[in-house]
Amino acid sequence: MIENYRRLYIKYNKYLNQIDCKPSEAKSKIIGDLNTSLKNCLDLEITSIGDIEAGQGTLYFKKSDHPKEFEFNVLSSGEKEVVDILLDLYLRQEEYNETVFLIDEPELHINTSIQKKLLLEINKLVGVNCQIWLATHSIGFLRALQEDLKDDCQIIQFQKGINWASTQQTVIPIKKSISKWKEIFETALDDLTGLVSPRRIVYCEGKDRPGANGLEKGFDAKVFNNIYGEKYHDTLFISSGGNTELDQRSEIALAILTKVFSEIEILVLKDRDVSSGKQNDENDRQVYLKTNPNHFRIMKRWEIENYLFDKEVLQAFCKASNLTFNEVEYDKFVTNIVDDNIKDQTNKIRNFCGINHSISAENFKLTLSEYMTEEMEVFKELEQCIFHRQ
Known about the structure:
With 390 residues, the protein is α/β, with parallel strands linked by helices. Helices cover 44% and strands 10% of the residues.
């Protein structure tokens, strides 16, 4: 802080000499810019940068509930931390405009309610051509990354059981889905991870009984969480049995959960094969939507495989895997990707992708789900069915 104060005083004198203004005007300019960030974090405002010649070489502050101004040393340890971080970044703005800032656990001594605000101000103070690399266990910082900065940040999860310090590792950002956020919050919340609750639950078909530690075992839910977990990070897909079981369990969830969590939304998503195996078309689907409650959804295509085996997805998978996609043979076989029942044709699809060895059908389809991205038409079509009831 001593060094930062010295630099601030230099900045004040430089401004005073360059602009040729009154000392009070120079102080007001220098303090004003800094106070904008400070007041967004704390009920605190810098009133003066002191007077070194008068033996008052320190910052002075005021609070709304305090009658007199007071010096820096009176601040709490958390307040000092916030002032020091913001002051340091404020002073570096002009010179460090193409910089990577490395900050190690800045949340120490800082109240959780202030942590989120602080990270937002840090992000504003560094230039647009700068990066912030932040190591943190902070609930407040994680919330800022999850909500306010979700489109601007990447998250590296340092998992247990890996020799990070002694071996070379390639770090890959996680998908910012609710399941991944739950894992990350375990570090900060320990066994209170239940506090990380979704704002939307979508019941879909599949195995209803969870695996160890509540792990989702249903195939459809895994696929949907893979596809939409990052864009809709507050949505959780849950497998809940077959067609009729979905109706029963969603009604129970609606009756109970909505009383406890008033803002939670519960949806029911069904395959288009709801007619006990009988063929139906788009008109039948629209009739289903009109004659069922608003929280019911139904897919345009026959089953989830009709989306996973879409040409766009297979081409993206093959390109990333250095495989050659046989589009001619695929087009001969898949003549109607919307209505064809292709659920059990995994081996045919595998061959079109140039895979010659045996594969696990479920793992193959789960892998394909990771290649369905939001710029694809197939992604948008399914998104409209689920989130917009179209």
